[in-house]
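Trying the structure run again after the queue cleared.
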Amino acid sequence: ALRPEAWATFKVVEAVPHGKRVRKGDVLVKFDDKDIEKAIAEKSLELRTGELALMAAEEDFPRLEKSIALSYDEAKRQYDEAQDEKKRFDDTMRDMSERMAKYYLQSSEQQFQNANEEYEQLKKMYDADELTEETEEIVLKRQKFQVEAAKFFLEYANINHQYTTEISIPQREQSLKTAVETAKIAFDRASMAKSLGMNQQRYELEKMREARTKAVDSHAKLLADRALMTLKAPADGIVYYGRAVNGRWIEVSSQESKLIPFGTLTPNSVVMTIVKDRPMYVETAVGEKELPTVKAKQPTIVSPVADAEIELNAKVAKVADVPGAGNKFPVRVDLK
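Done. Tokens:
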């Protein structure tokens, strides 16, 4: 019988002819094994590659587990820090920044006012005293520069106050708000990865293990099927193509068309039957009317169709309990 585990293509290279007498171990059919050898080589490579991939995954799994835990801790830390920074800004720094800008503006205004007043007073004083014109010019020139500098810083303070209150503080507030939201998203993802990611990795690892087991099984089946590339006789006897059904060889013609070079056999079929010379038996049938007269172990006589004058001693081996073809009960008779 040709009953492979996995292989399905059996192309005949050579086969013994129908009716040939063979001895146990003789080659009956030889199939082309190039394709199965190639498949075994590919499966072996796939098996080795899968083994290495599984080993790498098994080795990397603890590191991946630790990496996910560290990513979670880092995301939580950043989220906490972003919240703390936003709270600190809302509770303290926003008000402090506004007060600082206002104070800087007021200070600049005061400095300008002081410098300008001092300049005006110097002018009045120098108009009434007896200082030389050269000395007056030097002092007034210096004070005038202080006035101009104070005026410049006042202008800058106005611009800075406007920028701080209208742009810088709102931008900082929005930036901190965005940082908190971004950190929360990252933290939520890290939390999900911690709770679901490792389970997914475990499933992937288990999937690889199952694939490895299937690959090993598939490889083993191919190796077993390689032995079918050469079918040998299980016993001494005469080769009949196909199988016998109630003493009839119903598959000889169909098998003869397949058991030729480049012919193809169907898996899970009986290729040949080795018939021994002895012992011999006869299969016949009796009707319901004769059934009560036929019993197991009953002696009987068999006359072959080829020569009705010959009588062969025999014994009924068994009688079927249920009818078969033609509503007759099959009977087996063993020849002595």
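Helices lie at 34-128, 133-226, 252-256. Worth checking whether this holds up in the mutant runs.
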